[in-house]
Amino acid sequence: MKALDELTFDNRFARLGDAFSTHVLPEPIDAPRVVVASDAAMALLDLDPAVAQDPVFAQLFGGHTLWADAEPRAMVYSGHQFGSYNPQLGDGRGLLLGEVYNDAGEHWDLHLKGAGMTPYSRMGDGRAVLRSSIREFLASEALHALGIPSSRALCVIGSDTPVWRETQERAAMVLRLAPSHVRFGHFEYFYYTKRPEQQKQLGEHVLAMHFAECLEQPEPYLAMFREIVERNAELIAKWQAYGFCHGVMNTDNMSILGITFDFGPFAFLDDFDANFVCNHSDHEGRYSFSNQVPIGQWNLSALAQALTPFISVEALRETLGLFLPLYQAHYTDLMRRRLGLTTAEDSDQHLIETLLQRMQGSSIDYTLFFRRLGDLPAEQAVAQLRNEFVDLKGFDEWAAQYVARVAREGVSDESARRDRMHAVNPLYILRNYLAQKAIDAAQAGDYSEVQRLHDVLTQPFTEQPGMEAYAERPPEWGKHLEISCSS
Ligand code: AMP
Ligand code: MG
């Protein structure tokens, strides 16, 4: 276990030079205090969790002081936002403080979000508000606990610094961890600004640092692109299987590592709705829940375009063609497991699709449906769940198929079936209204609810005594919260 001053830095991205990022010092926030910290994220840096109580912790992650070996830098990138190319983006309010390597030999980017203005701030103030920082923290750690790849969050630091959004709010900072902060938009930036030398430098950096195994392939860039396609297919399959809606799948928010990245107005589904749009600025529903799959492919094709200097168009096309079948295979596999099935039958995809059709419009809580399906033997479980469906005949048809399907597998041990299903079907999920209650308390100065919610969500599959309230369906007011897109 390390103390805060024992971290070892090796700032590989910073060494790429000024064409890739700009040196900027964090602008401190007033009266910094720890809102919440993640022991699990601290463990990634070998940090003793007790360091969160050290006054230096809030100073460091509130931008007041820095390690001597840190090299804070704002990265430059561009990207496609809502389908249109924006030629100039970059870290407008976040700084890569440096890369720390841990005892296991892994490198972790330390990225401080809300650290003040940078050359890429455009019209923004360089700040992040408390509510959006809490949401990013909770989501990163909750997704990770669900087994969904994500950037991680070490802590949220609150402050007295005023910031203006729709009303006056308080600034906060979140310390984000990821093995890399390179986005699809990094490649797009050097491609569209026609800087082949630097694009090659970026490509070689990413290959060597993050896709070293691809260097052994005859065409390393193609192997890397294939790996990115595979990882994104798997990531989006997990989002769809667990009802996660990202909300802003612009290519500047897509990680080359295939991890969930850059949290805005995201949401987990409460009631199942394939057409759910969590981002209120997304008037056309470009990033609706079900559109995440074709948009994932669209984003990969934007990346492919930026990689045309390295890879032939035919090879890129062929590799892009792998996305949908890979996605479908992962998704079907995950959903089979959520349904408690241990074998594969061709008709399973149809069984899954019809279930979702039956759920649509019936106000079925997506998370609790699967949890309850595993509580009891299949026939009893569907009998209990049926009353929630509007189209009883439709549900009965599905339920008969499901019960027959389970019977074909044969369940010799009902408690093993329940344990197996509960291990993949969470009881606790980061519902918007739960986050909002924790945020309301934090804005009034009480951080205990954020901490409790974080604790509950670190073990989403395990029933926790006394935490029943966190496993309930949202109240009616909690289903229709407008999550502000300003952050
Ligand atoms: P996002 O929608 O959060 O992914 O942000 C898109 C771009 O806007 C990124 O380049 C951000 O760094 C930048 N940005 C977002 N909010 C601010 C802000 N308050 N100040 C400066 N830049 C910002
Ligand atoms: Mg972003």
TrEMBL record:
Keyword Magnesium in record: yes
Cofactor: Mg(2+); Mn(2+)
Residues the entry annotates as binding Mg(2+): 253, 262
UniProt-listed InterPro entries: SelO
Keywords assigned by UniProt, alphabetized: ATP-binding, Magnesium, Manganese, Metal-binding, Nucleotide-binding, Nucleotidyltransferase, Transferase
Enzyme class, UniProt record, top EC level: transferase
Annotated ATP binding sites: 90, 92-93, 113, 125-126, 176, 183, 262
Catalytic activity reported: L-tyrosyl-[protein] + ATP = O-(5'-adenylyl)-L-tyrosyl-[protein] + diphosphate; L-tyrosyl-[protein] + UTP = O-(5'-uridylyl)-L-tyrosyl-[protein] + diphosphate; L-histidyl-[protein] + UTP = N(tele)-(5'-uridylyl)-L-histidyl-[protein] + diphosphate; L-seryl-[protein] + ATP = 3-O-(5'-adenylyl)-L-seryl-[protein] + diphosphate
Domain of life, per lineage: Bacteria
GO MF annotation list: AMPylase activity; ATP binding; magnesium ion binding; manganese ion binding
Catalytic residues as annotated in Swiss-Prot or TrEMBL: 252
Keyword Mitochondrion: no
Enzyme Commission designation: 2.7.7.-, 2.7.7.108
PANTHER family: PROTEIN ADENYLYLTRANSFERASE SELO, MITOCHONDRIAL
Task of the protein: Nucleotidyltransferase involved in the post-translational modification of proteins. It can catalyze the addition of adenosine monophosphate (AMP) or uridine monophosphate (UMP) to a protein, resulting in modifications known as AMPylation and UMPylation.
NCBIfam families: PRK00029.1, PrtAdtaseSelOPseudom
HAMAP family recorded: SelO
Family: Belongs to the SELO family.
Name assigned to this protein: Protein nucleotidyltransferase YdiU
Species whose genome carries this gene: Pseudomonas deceptionensis
Source lineage: Bacteria, Pseudomonadati, Pseudomonadota, Gammaproteobacteria, Pseudomonadales
